[in-house]
Specification:
The structure is a single chain. It contains 5 helices and 5 strands. By secondary structure, it is an alpha+beta fold. The protein folds into 2 domains: 74 residues, Ubiquitin-like (UB roll), CATH 3.10.20; 70 residues, DNA polymerase, domain 1 (Orthogonal Bundle). A 5-stranded mixed sheet has the order 2-1-5-3-4, with helices on one face. Helix 2 packs across helix 5.
Amino acid sequence: MKLNFTVNGAPRSLETPPDQRLLDILRNELDLTGCKEGCGEGECGACTVLLDDKAVLACLTVAAQLEGAQITTIEGLTENGKPGALQAAFVEEGAVQCGYCIPGMVLSAKALLNETSDPTEDDIRRALAGNLCRCSGYTQIIRAVKRTAKEMGAE
């Protein structure tokens, strides 16, 4: 199947089987390795990316769903080659340890911040509910999302 879609603002065209996972397309075909495979079953959130600005699990999204879509990976959140505001807040608030879950966490938070510029703690917890972290602890992650929302509101 011939696909035309956009990844991190760049148009892409790819020939792939319709049941190829987005996770495999990103990592193996496009060399975007920020998206991680954790469980491969949609339980951990490590593979979360944005598909048309909505958080989706790349391990459960197949190529047939991608025609004309806009995909954003963790690599697409950088600003001039440096971490974007949300990524920087995660680092500065101590929300990054091993880093395995962080791309999915950041993209889930980005999807939330695309919807609301002033999320409550409950909003943040719901948005991150499908993402598992064993290292950092959710307190720092929630603090990083709150901080970014506050900074976005000040702009």
